[in-house]
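Cont'd.
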Amino acid sequence: MHAVGIVAAAGSGLRLGADRPKALVPLADRPLVCWAVDTLRDGGVADVVVAVPGDELCAFATVLPLDVRLVVGGSTRTASVRAALAAVGTGADAVLVHDAARPLTPPDLVVRVLEALSAGARAVVPVLPVVDTTVVVDDDGGVADTVDRSVLRRVQTPQGFARDALVDAYAWLPPDAELTDDAAVVRAAGVPVATVAGDERGAKVTVPHDLALAELQVSR
Ligand SMILES: Nc1ccn([C@@H]2O[C@H](COP(=O)(O)OP(=O)(O)OP(=O)(O)O)[C@@H](O)[C@H]2O)c(=O)n1
Ligand SMILES: C[C@](O)(CO)[C@H](O)COP(=O)(O)O
């Protein structure tokens, strides 16, 4: 199976509040995007396309290996993945879409996703259980209900797809649609999505506390 990796790295990282786009923020002196590309490559996906902010092409080209292809992303994650997908050739059987914002995802997770695709899944996402009691709140912030969390999962990346399923789903999706992840795109187009076990180390760096935790993880 020939798999191509996409790294969504074109976000600004407003919630992190750094002085540069989040994907360029260093973790142990290396930009987050470099960690994410390494995860894909160490997991067996050598051919990688990275979606970056249009005004930061040079900065990303400086920090990434020469054989990583860069494309200009869009104003939403959905638009960025759509742009990167257009650069994936028809020779690929599978596409793995990963977040630059998940720097410490272990390569084992890439392997699990690839194995599920090889076994016949058309779409697969890594998931983790919800470990806290989870509630619904009303408009005033009061607790309205407690949810049955046994059926809930937290979704991570990389998410893997048969290339034709992902391409067809994005072609079907309206140009301005914004969905939270790529599994939602293919599911909306009618493709069943399988799951594999995620990994807590693949947590997303969203707010400053997440970056502090990641720094602790790499310093151990
Ligand atoms: N227009 C966008 C928005 C997000 N992403 C990428 O999608 C991943 C997950 O997004 P998130 O962590 O929510 O990043 P930001 O949108 O940058 O964060 P924020 O919402 O805090 O601004 C990140 O690797 C981010 O770079 C992207 O490629 N293009
Ligand atoms: C794709 C994702 O990482 C899956 O958990 C996530 O949806 C990214 O964006 P979000 O805006 O932080 O939900």
